Amino acid sequence: MEIGGLDGERCIGHYRSVDKILLVGEGDFSFALCLAKAFGSAGNMVATSLDSNAKLLEKYSKVAENLKQLRELGCKILHKVNAHSMSQNRKLNRELFDRIVFNFPHAGFRYAENWDQQIELHKQLVKGWNVKELAEEAGLELSNEVEFDKRSYPGYVNKRGDGSGSDRQFLVGESSTFMFRSVDNERCIGQYRSVDKVLLVGEGDFSFALCLAKAFGSARNMVATSLDSKAKLLQKYSKVAENLEKLGELGCTILHKVNAHSMSQNPNLNQELFDRIVFNFPHAGFRYAENWDAQIDEWNVKKLAKKVGLKLTDEVEFDKGSYPGYENKRGDGRRSDEAFPVGECTTFMFRLNPYHATNSKLMSLTL
């Protein structure tokens, strides 16, 4: 077992604490618990079973304790999740995961392991075990194939899962972990990628969010928020209704009345993990001339970041022309819907320091 990594990242086998992980077809949830203990937290994990909670308690002697520990470590647990139809599961189909894990997919052991009837049941579950061909059909390509060593995952106990011997192990023999990745091309705009889960904070007319969504071809990887209520936005911005409608069609999650100062306590956000948190031109609205002393304060972003456990990783010039359709807004007063001159400005990118907790891998702030 390997523990450790860059910037507080903790690893076990091929799995990292900085990745959002979905576990499919858990038996007694001992594999999920093994990862959670290695990471020191399960806040980055969703663990699922095909069986109901009641059925699991009938089958497995240690599942109640395993589930209790997982919940205490912050794991999201879902039951009655079928691997064949989980893309339609409303609790999963809006989520983005870095890793989806399915260990030893099988149909339960109703017969001896080497009986033809038993082998045929397993093959029916995964269409003959031709995993490379299956992956290609689903738009995936094999990126690696490594030996699976059960000893690398202390506490993990594979289960038969059916019949009178449900709680017993089965022999795994020589086995491999096949790792696949999407062959769909990653789409980028500026510093932002379609494969990242992105939280946008303090949106005005949501034109920046829409710019990203159009570049990605989808907004399913995005949560866009505003401080104002929807009603207030409709009063302020002439194009916000159209922008919100388009974002909704592209799959964006939209939240209003989200205060950047208290969003870590927001129940719609505090259980989520994001790859990027974006806050463009944070300001209190322009009630005075842009250059009045009452309006401008010294931005000491590096010092502020250090206080909350972030460190600067990059600093790049912000070019508004790189984000077609984006209109920065004054946001307050009679001229709310007007742009303000941005002049020379910079996007500061921060990442998590190892000894602080946050729900983002990278935060960008444009000033």
Can you walk through the features of this model?
With 367 residues, the chain is of the alpha/beta class. It has 2 domains: 11-182, Rossmann fold (3-Layer(aba) Sandwich), CATH 3.40.50; 188-364, Rossmann fold (3-Layer(aba) Sandwich), CATH 3.40.50. 21% of the residues lie in helices and 21% in strands. It contains 9 helices and 17 strands. The strands form 5 sheets. It has a 7-stranded mixed sheet with strand order 13-12-11-14-17-16-15, with helices on both faces. Helix 1 (30-39) packs parallel to helix 3 and helix 6 runs parallel beside helix 8 (240-249). The chain starts with 10 loop residues before the first strand and ends with a strand. Residues 1-7, 292-297 and 354-359 have low confidence and may be disordered. InterPro entries: BMT5-like. One of its GO terms (biological process) is rRNA base methylation. It comes from Tripterygium wilfordii. Residues 22-128, 199-289, 296-330 form the 25S rRNA (uridine-N(3))-methyltransferase BMT5-like domain. One of its GO terms (molecular function) is rRNA (uridine-N3-)-methyltransferase activity.
Summarize the structure.
The chain is 21% helix and 21% strand.
CATH architectural category of the largest domain: 3-Layer(aba) Sandwich
Structural class: alpha/beta
SSE order, one letter for each helix or strand: EEEHEHHEEHHEEEEEHEHHEEHEEE
- Number of domains as seen in the coordinates: 2
* Gyration radius, rounded: 24 Å
Q: End-to-end distance, in Å? A: 43 Å
